[in-house]
Amino acid sequence: MYKMRYLLLVSLLVINYPCVFAQNQPNIIVILSDDAGYADFGFQGSKEMKTPALDRLAKESIQCTQAYVAGAVCGPSRAALLTGKYQQRFGFEENNVPGYMQNYELKDDDMGLPLDQKTIGDYMKELGYSTGLIGKWHMGNNDKFHPTKRGFDFFYGFRGGARSYWPFSEDTLNHRQEDFMERGYKNFEEPEGYLTDVFAEETIQFLEDNKTSPFFLFLSFNAVHTPMHAKEEDLKEFPHLSGKRQQLAAMTLTMDKACDKIIQSLKEKGLDKNTIIIYTNDNGGPTDANASDNSPLSGTKANHYEGGIRVPFIFSIPDQIKQIEISNYHHVISTLDILPTCYAIGGGDINKLLDTDGVNLLPYFSASQNGNPHQTLYWKKENRGAIRHGQWKFLRFPNRPAELYDLSEDISEVHNLAYQYPEKIKEFYKMLFDWELTLSRPRWQLQRKYEGAAMERIDTYKKTEIH
User: Fold this and answer.
1) Among 191, 203, 264, 305, which one has the highest count of C-beta atoms within 10 angstroms of its own C-beta?
2) pLDDT digits (tens, 9 = 90+) for 143-189
3) Can you tell me whether residue 126 is helix, strand or coil?
């Protein structure tokens, strides 16, 4: 009975969302953690981690049990979330980490989210939202890529991919510009206190400053990415753990407390009744780097096994329907869906989003639209690739035979069925090749320097042969 009432209420919102949401646009907060393990939350089954705030949020929300990211590392994953597109379509196939792309053609600071791509900030601003980004950017260090030039009215955070959780001191002033904390555009200032706490304080201030108008906030934590910096008071909560695992547990607890402060602030300001919260993670946990736990999934950050690309996902509905019993959602979704879903929530015409790969999840959550939001999802990084198609998971490698798994029976990807289904392997190879033909060349390789040199050698050889 309760579930039927819930579905009816959401269905009415979905069917009428252009007028309902346009008249009373909900606030939206997208919270993204960084490098967290799939199993490292209480609501994901952990008995070691303490995440009471996120556990409560999950209990009152829709939990998506088959949620994926579009990239297995930070930068590409964020690029897909921000644009609603496969990042390979605009050449953002690799992390834009200084030095990481040293064999490619662009300087480090010129590697970023291409300027011809619209972001979720751009789209939400068009709907009249005040937009903010707090935390990690990682979409380009050059000034031209700055968040305030990419659809966000407010920015407080750092441009790079990782930094200290503690303020830089005077003897650490040799850090790059992208490492320093920045308020707005080129107003660099080091905060006092632990960075995760600072981001919570800044978020609460953002809520205060924007409480009278609809807002969209992207809270992009760098927790629990390395370096492994933990607060002493939270380390003491895990005396039975040691080393990186203890540090990770403490960092996770600090992030959970930060989320709790934000949720409590929403309630104190009366904003909880009209604020949707989406919580997820940017990729799987890098088990060696931060001792994260992706079980029962195989793999880690940076590879295409489930442990690298499947993530926790919470979709919290506002208070007016939150009291209704909500069940988990078990079909396949993607962080590609965040942009179109938020756009629909804001009252936008979803039919105008013709160039996105994500879908509006609202009809699927309400059961007004049957079926799977994504029958097929793709991944690619250089020569490695993967497909999730229905129950099947196909993986292509540059240096060993392809693998095939039935995820309906084998979520841990233990039993490789490739040799039992050779025709499926051929089918998936072709699907992956066909998809790759629609993609752009990685931006960092656009100059084709080495190909040009090769062609010159070929031309020289031909002329020699002729004479």
Assistant:
1) 203
2) 999 999 999 999 999 999 999 999 987 666 567 778 899 999 999 98
3) helix
Of 314, 312, 316, the residue nearest 324 (C-alpha): 316
Report in angstroms the alpha-carbon separations of 141 from 97, 158, 310.
9, 9, 28
Residues 196 and 251: beta-carbon distance below 8 Å: yes
Nearest C-alpha neighbor of 56 from the set 285, 366, 277: 277
Cα–Cα distance between 274 and 127 in angstroms, integer?
16
Q: Give the pLDDT score at 319.
A: 55
Please compute, for residue 329, the number of CA atoms within 13 A of its CA located in the half-sphere on the CB side: 28
Contacts 24+ apart (CB under 8 A), 234-238: 237/50, 238/48, 238/50
For 383-436, CATH number out of 3.30.1120.10, 3.90.70.10, 3.40.50.300, 3.40.50.620 equals 3.30.1120.10
Which among 348, 278, 347 has a CA at the least distance from the CA of 318?
278
Reduced DSSP (H G I as helix, E B as strand, rest coil) percent helix, strand, coil of the chain, to 5: 40, 15, 45
Task: Write down the CATH superfamily of domain 2-366.
Answer: Alkaline Phosphatase, subunit A (3.40.720.10)
Strands (E), 1-104: 27-33, 62-68
